[in-house]
Amino acid sequence: MVTGGSSGIGAATARLLAAAGFPVVVGARRVDVCEVVAKEIRQTGGEAVALALDLTRPDSIEEFAAAAISVSGTVEVLVSNAGRSAPGSALDSDPDDFAQTLTVNVLGAQRLTRLLVTPMVARLRGDVVFVTSETVSAPRPNAAGYVSSKWGLEGLARALQMELEGTGVRATIVRPGQTLTEMGSDWDPQSATEVIESWIHWGLARHSGFLQPDGVAAAVLAAVSMPRGTHVSALDVQPEAPIASPTDDPAQPQLHQTDKEPPT
Predict the structure, then answer these.
(1) Is 12 left (phi over 0), alpha (psi -120 to 50) or beta?
(2) Is 103 helix (H, G, I), strand (E, B) or coil?
(3) Tell me, what's the pLDDT at 241?
(4) Mean pLDDT for the chain?
(5) Residue 85's pLDDT is what?
(6) Which of 120, 146, 234, 262 is an S-S bond match for 85, by CB 3.0 to 4.6 Å?
(7) Rounded mean pLDDT, 238-260
(8) Which of 143, 157, 68 is CA-nearest to residue 109?
(9) Which pTM value belongs to this model?
(10) Domain range list for the chain
(11) Taking the C-alpha atoms of 143, 144, 150 and 152 in order, what is their torsion angle to the nearest 10 degrees?
(12) How wide is the angle at C-alpha 183 spanned by C-alphas 179 and 187, nearest 5°?
């Protein structure tokens, strides 16, 4: 089961898990877009179902969990990936908007985890993966709600790891660096520019490289594919810097020509 499965990391994870032989349930508010992802999976020989999921609504979370169990029988892997991000400093963020980010990224994840990991404990097997963010290890200004929520999500995951010890259920943190997804695409351009400039000021944008969602998905698959008796507690996934020519200024790395266009 993959939350936030309509695009980006979630969609890439759903496709990769399905290609590895997992029947997949993808969930997001945009269930019509999730269905496109599920259809692509089915057309390539995989098994996939799309279901609506709104992590701000407890009733939607309960309905999603019940429907997923109904169509799949058991949930062996839960990938808690759905997230919300909005620009805003600690002092200027509207408290209601701040709370909305925490509701989606922490409270919604906890509600769904409670419903789906409890049966895993009863079966003495299963995996839950929390997709967090490098903002946990390197906080960023002007993204106070997002940073706070990802710290909270990792706190939840760390506590859960201890609580699950000896149950046969593994909890893994996958912490991606800057990744090309739709997140942030709805930001006001001026706000986005100000945020990025503040990150550069604090040395948080070391180079122009971005992860592709498939790279993060590969980390998720690696974690849940580990042989039993092996637990990957956390994986940091970072983009490679663009390859620089030996004659280039190290402070201004340039890309060699490759068969792929660099991210923009």
Answers:
(1) alpha
(2) helix
(3) 79
(4) 87
(5) 82
(6) 146
(7) 59
(8) 157
(9) 0.85
(10) 2-237
(11) 180
(12) 125
Q: Any idea what the Cα angle at residue 127 is, between residues 122 and 130, rounded to 5°?
A: 125
DSSP string computed for 116-146: HHHHHHHHT-EEEEEE--GGGTS--TTBHHH
Angle formed by the axes of helices 144-164 and 108-123, nearest 10°: 20
Q: Summarize the confidence of residues 37-57 as an average pLDDT.
A: 96
Which tokens is 227 given? 């042989």
Q: Which helix (H) or strand (E) holds 26?
A: strand 24-28
CATH architecture of 2-237: 3-Layer(aba) Sandwich (3.40)
For 166: left if phi > 0, alpha if psi spans -120 to 50, otherwise beta; the answer is: left
List the catalytic residues. Answer: 146
Q: What is the signed CA dihedral for 40, 44, 48, 54, rounded to 10 degrees?
A: -20
- What are the strands of the beta sheet with 2-3, ordered from one edge? 48-52, 24-28, 2-3, 77-80, 126-131, 169-176, 234-237
Q: Write the pLDDT tens digit of every residue in 135-154.
A: 898 888 888 999 999 999 99
Cβ atoms 24, 79 nearer than 8 A: no
**In 10 A of CB 231, how many CB atoms?**
15
| Residue located via tokens 């407890």 | 58
pLDDT average, residue stretch 234-256: 69
Number of other residues whose CB lies within 10 A of the CB of residue 143: 25
Residue 131's nearest CA partner among 79, 205, 204 is 79
Contacts for 235 with CB less than 8 Å, ≥ 6 apart: 172, 173, 174, 175, 219, 222, 223
